[in-house]
Amino acid sequence: MRHQSPSSWAVISICITTIVHFALGFAVEFSVDEAHYVLYAKHLAWSYFDHPPLVGWIQWPLVSLTSSEGIIRLIPELLWALSAFLVYQVTLEIHRLIQGRQGRQGQSAGYLTTALPSANLCGLMAVLVMIAAPLPHVLAIGLLPDTLLTPLSLGLMLMALRWTRKDAFSMADWVITGLLLGLAGLSKYTAVFTAFAILFVFLASPKKAWVTKAGFWLALVIALLIISPVLYWNWINDWISFRYQIAHGSGGTWAWRRVAAFIGIQIACFGPLLLLGSYLFLKHCLHHQKLILIALLSFFVIPFAIFASLSGGGSLPHWTTPAWFCLAPFAGIGLAKAWATQHRKAIRLLLIGQLLICLLGFGFVLAGGISTAAIKSNPIADLYGWKLAGQKAAQLTQETKVNGIAVQNWTLASRAAWYASPVPVFVLDQRRDQFDLWFGQLPEGSSAILINWSGMTFNPPIGGNLAFEQCDPLDSLEIIRFGRILSRFEYSLCRNWQDTGATR
After folding, report:
1. 49 near 244, Cβ under 8 Å?
2. Digit-coded pLDDT (tens) for 39-86
3. In 103-237, which residue ranges form alpha helices assigned H by DSSP?
4. Structurally, how many domains does the chain consist of?
5. How far is CA 28 from the centre of its chain?
6. Same domain (yes/no): 42, 128
7. Judgement on whether residues 339 and 420 belong to the same structural domain of the protein
8. Is residue 190 within 8 Å of 305, Cβ to Cβ?
9. CB 82 within 8 A of CB 59
């Protein structure tokens, strides 16, 4: 580090990590969620059953040109690099706020100037803690709504910092804030937590007028106009997306052990380095501008606290990714302060340890998982074989002249629909989902090619209210990587679908 400035090392680190993401993007097939959102781009709409539309809209230009996973994944890779850059910029702004620059001079500011390390060192540390966090690399390769919400949340945090440091917001500032709020709402419904955080920052500055400003109301109008497609689509579709998200967020029966497991998984997924840096920031830097800094910390605290409380009924670990990115600038300042005061051993050990975990994870994915006798126990098998399986299913559909492909769970449908396109894929369950909107329900009396995958096996649907009259084994496909069988696909020809009108 002696031969390069901290800012140069930050750029080098982001570039190296982006190159790694780019290489991995060509190495594996789409995951279940990636394929689902890529299908959004194939079926453009004002909104969708489970999420707002931006995750599909942003992929449409590339999806219309190519089906290559590596090329389509350029979008999340660039969004990750943008998020890392914004983490660096937000760190610099928080550093300036603590230093009391822009005309705020005084004894306390002078003291802090000698107490804090350089802003660029703080920015570098903030970038490194996110590079060393394992889970964000998953979202950097596969586009999820959280991948989009992360840079937009950081952009709103940057605008909140501008609000704290400027005497007044210009009309351009209000317009940018409205655009970011609207795009965040088009990314994911949980963007409302970020909106609450920026409102908290406004409330923490009681001497600045904002409710009476025309720019504030203009920003609200802009945000509402941008999210109006989502509201319109839900209005004409009986608000199914909102009802689904409320049920999905509440999960199942609430239990404390799930909350404890959620917190443990969060630490494992994002690394203890973020927690250490945040603790050091709270201990050493939360003395001046205290109310404003607490308000800025709400960009992390509000979403994390809500997701932690909901985790008692069940939640997914990647939902908190935008919140952790918003915490990274504070952690970077805390770590930089400890680094500058020669407390470097623990930081080095944690950083190297977390980077090794990330590299082991990359190798684990490329190797196809750990060798095991039980095929179903290998989670990495889910990333290989679906392209061949989908192409084979499409071929069998043409040969048998059936109505389409059938699966028994929506998680099996997304890859089948993408890789077997344009063959329709029908989900044979009573749960209404996006595939019902795209392909409808399998018509009564129809025949289909039924796909059964070794990672999620089902008995053939024969007999009952929703079932075929007969299913005959047709073909099979083994997925082999480095001489090991990762998974197995079974194909059956199923005839005469019977739907007696069971409640869906």
Report:
1. yes
2. 999 999 999 999 999 999 999 999 999 989 999 999 999 999 999 999
3. 107-115, 119-131, 136-141, 145-165, 171-187, 191-203, 214-236
4. 2
5. 18
6. yes
7. no
8. no
9. no
